[in-house]
Amino acid sequence: MLAALVILGIVLPVAMRGVSLSLAAASNAKHTNVAAQLADQKLNEVVLTGDWQQNGLSGDFNPQHLDYHWTLQTQQRDYGLDEVRVQVSWTQRGQQYNFTASTLVYNT
User: Fold this and answer.
1) Chain centroid to CA 94: how far?
2) 20 to 30 A Cα–Cα from 79, which one of 2, 9, 39, 64?
3) 66 by DSSP, 3-state: which?
């Protein structure tokens, strides 16, 4: 009985650490997936509305995703193209994370 308790005392903390790491990885994957969807949505929106020409726009995703914020950056490239980047940022477990989506737009 004592041997079983010693083994359990060794195995249980290791197993709990594994569960904790798995939950953290799942949470990070979920937040990154949401950020990718929001960035793609905002990128499509600013390209369709023509707001991509206003460099430096920023905001959040009201009302459903208040903890995610976006920033728009444009940069001129060759051959009349502009690179449009939307960066989505969020805070998770006290640490700042970012996801960036970009596309090229022909500047008429």
Assistant:
1) 14
2) 39
3) strand
The structure's pTM equals 0.77
Closest among 96, 84, 102, 104 to 36, alpha carbons compared: 102
The 10s digit of each residue's pLDDT in 50-59 is 887 887 888 8
Pull the structure tokens for residue 24: 């953290």
pLDDT tens digits, residue range 39-51?
999 999 999 888 8
Would you mind telling me the total number of residues written for the chain in this entry? Answer: 108
User: What span, in angstroms and rounded, lies between the C-alpha atoms of 28 and 31?
Assistant: 5
Query: Strand 65-76's sheet: what is its strand order?
Result: 58-61, 65-76, 81-92, 95-106
